[in-house]
Amino acid sequence: WFCASMRLTSIQTALSTGAGNASGALVAARPIHASPRRTLAESRLTVDGMLHHTPGQRQMDAAFRSLDPAMYELPQGLLDQAITPCLVVYLDAVRHNIAEIIRVCGGDPSRWRPHAKTTKIRAVYAELVRSGVHQFKAATPREADVLGSVFEELQVAGDVLVAFPLVGPGLVRLGQVAQRHPRTKFSVLVETLEAVAALPAGVSYFIDVNPGMHRSGMPLEAAEQGRAAEVAAAGQASGTYRGLHFYDGHGVGWVDLDERKSALWALYDRLLALDKSLQQQGFLSGELITAGTPSLTSSISHKSLAATGRHRVSPGTVVFHDFQYDLLNPDLNLKPAAVVLSRVVSHPRENWFTLDAGSKAIAAEAGDPMAYIIGHPEFEPGHPSEEHLPVDGRGYSLPKRGSPLYLVPRHVCPTVNLAEHALLMDRDESDRLVLRSLSSVDGRAHDTLLSQPLVSSRLVSAL
To answer: Nearest-CA neighbor of 415 among 403, 407, 426, 424?
Structure first.
């Protein structure tokens, strides 16, 4: 299909440009080496409102200005064994980022319910739990199951909200997870009375309110007009109603931090009014959840939310950090903690080289350039194919074939999901980077059948 599609595109291009000879036979509209997918890598630029950045600057030049490339270089002995592309996680950077977010939360880890969809690795979940974070969001029953196994091993009473409106067998699967991990509270998002009625034993719920993200949840206006009260009432007798989930990820649309804060605060005021209305009707929301990564600082600084004593923020990307949020959340002091090790495999034409980390190794859905090359902001990654990432050298000296390069994904969350294993690196007593373990990415992907054993039933690695 792909090859046929490419041939059709070439014919259409030739026809549209009138490329043909006197007899009407088609001729090449352009040389093969000038394919539009490979001609150039258009630089994405900073825009008005990006803190600390001049508008019109190459994003590559703007991001990670204080990053020390030496902190990411693997020991030579390990590098000689590492088959690329591979995911590398730096636990010292993980701890730094966890400490930074707890600092932003006023030193109170109970105000943070991080989304586990980013990290997916038991050892990283354990770092969060040991830091005092005992409540999480997850995207899938499998992530919830892996989190439950971590709580069991560390003997901690945990709390996991699957922040997704599960239906059918997926919801049944969450019930199986809840039965396996009785030490942990499990809940799910609902927006209708029918969803409440379908809850399996051991699973409670949060009402999902849509404040403008338009991805899931009852519209805020409908919630205000009484629908939230109806859904809260359905769980009153059973005690399964937990609170309000108010995901404001569309806050990323306001690049200017002051504009973002102003727009989001208006929404938070409406959330508080909804919460008050529910209380007046006899329905106490035990928790108010807001804020993914783009909205974190706006949300945590809203004094009236904090004053409820029931508010939590829920960013997850911040644990690993990535390229896009280094530009959009420059008010956070975070380090990349998960990178993809790649190698130069080709010099296909002048001023270009190719890496072995294509879209099967680094998520590409967030657009080009899909990665930042640590220590080399002068290079501009182009558009990837499945196994190849062409890079525009922009006239600079090119790395030799076989050279290792470390890539910070533009979007780290789905990048982690692509990896089956990760190298977990840490610092020894002499501050040298050492391999702690080759870890399975246990929370990746999805279960397929209800009859499958839960992932936690076959985990053998100790934390």
So the answer is: 407
